Amino acid sequence: MENENNYLLLTPGPLTTSSTVKRAMEFDYCTWDDDYKGITQTIRRSLLDIAQVSSKKYTSVLMQGSGTYGVESVISSVIPDDGTLMIAMNGAYGERIGQMADVYGIDHVDLIIDEQQPITLESVKQMLKRYPETTHFAMIHCETTTGILNPIEEIIPWMHEQGIITIVDAMSSFGGIPIAVEDLKIDYLISSTNKCIQGVPGFSFIVANEEKLREIEGIARTLSLDLYSQFDEMEANNGKWRFTSPTHVVHAFAQALIELRVEGGVEKRFERYRDNQSKLSEGMKKLGFEPLIDTDWQSPIITSFKYPSDDFDFGKFYSKLKESGFVIYPGKLSEVPTFRIGNIGEVYAEDIDRLLKVIEKLSQKIS
Fold first, then answer.
1. For FRET with 144, which of 45, 70, 169, 292 sits at 20 to 30 Å CA-CA?
2. How far apart are the C-alpha atoms of 297 and 249, rounded to whole Å?
3. Residues 1 and 19: beta-carbon distance below 8 Å
4. In whole angstroms, how far apart are CA 84 and each of 106, 123, 190, 206, 314?
């Protein structure tokens, strides 16, 4: 679809959206209106379809705020005072969950893995032997610090077998990578509007095992991020949010969900993202930019590239790319100098081709 921006966002979200998603924000809704509440309920059902779950066993809850708000809603709402949370960390977003646990005084044990390596089942098993008191487990699916894709399909079912409640931050993967939430035994999955479903920033959402969700009534540590109370309100009042919701963002997200279906669903979007990333990675290698993450663990969402030389000027590189119509991300690693290029949103093969041509010209001038 036609992009009305003067540059393309090659980031993991916010991302470049379609003109039709943007136009959906022009409609003003009343939060109490039945039509608006009906949109909320339609969104909730659509999220369950994307998650490949049975609506009888799972539910979805929408939460005001960015993706971090959604993660904090889960962390602050589902772990009782006598619980222990194991957090798998191989990047900044796993570490952020640890910060949340600290703020709320939640006991947690941290499985810290090198940022360039995936979380493995064996490392989780060893950690659980050391901390058998663990009651809850949280991990990131796509860690956008580097672009690494962690193997939730190996780890989460095993943790479930141990009787541990599982939490998956699928912020930058849900809707762009198939995730069979019910088959994997994920109890809580969190994502947000401005990632692979290609909406705009404004709210997050949680796909939850309803039986587990109903058990957490009354233990939330905040008012506005109380996950159970938000669920209860939406159930009791047919899609009514407890507090003022981002109505324009909600309508845009409903349009984005329609466009996901038109594209062919998650599988087709995954193919586009995967093809984008493959073209990007191979093209950048030819230009002297080496990907940070091994191909076996590389996500189709965002790719980290090492600086090609010690005197590489990222600031100048960034500015020149922006002048040419592309915005990329700086690196987030503490040890290896990198930058990141995302390929989700309204980004297609021809856009990657245009980017590579621009970088080829710049690489001769910037070192």
1. 45
2. 33
3. yes
4. 7, 18, 20, 21, 42
- Mean pLDDT for 65-92 is 97
Residue pLDDT, tens place only, 81-104: 999 999 999 999 999 999 999 999
For residue 74, the cross-strand partners are none
Q: Token pair of 122, please?
A: 């064996």
Q: Which amino acid does the sequence have at 328?
A: I
Residue 3 has pLDDT above 70, yes or no: no
Q: Is the pLDDT of residue 162 over 80?
A: yes
- Does pTM top 0.85 for this prediction? yes
* Nearby residues of 22 by Cβ (< 8 Å), 6 or more positions away: 4, 200, 252
SS3 call for 110: strand
**With bands split at pLDDT 50, 70 and 90, how would you rate the model's confidence at 1?**
very low
CB atoms within 10 A of CB 234: 21
pLDDT score, position 212: 98
Average per-residue pLDDT in the chain?
95
Tokens, residue 307:
């600086």
Residue 13's closest CA among 329, 252, 272?
A: 329
Query: Which residue in 206, 347, 199 sits closest to 259, CA to CA?
Result: 199
CA distance 167 to 190: 8
Q: Are 223 and 40 in contact (CB under 8 A)?
A: no
- Taking alpha carbons only, the member of 282, 149, 257 closest to residue 205 is 257
- Owner of token pair 């100048």: 316
Q: How many CA atoms within 13 Å lie on the side-chain side of 277?
A: 27
Distance CA 137, CA 108 (A): 9
Residues 115, 120, 126, 129, Cα dihedral to 10°? 110
For 271, the token pair is 């193919």
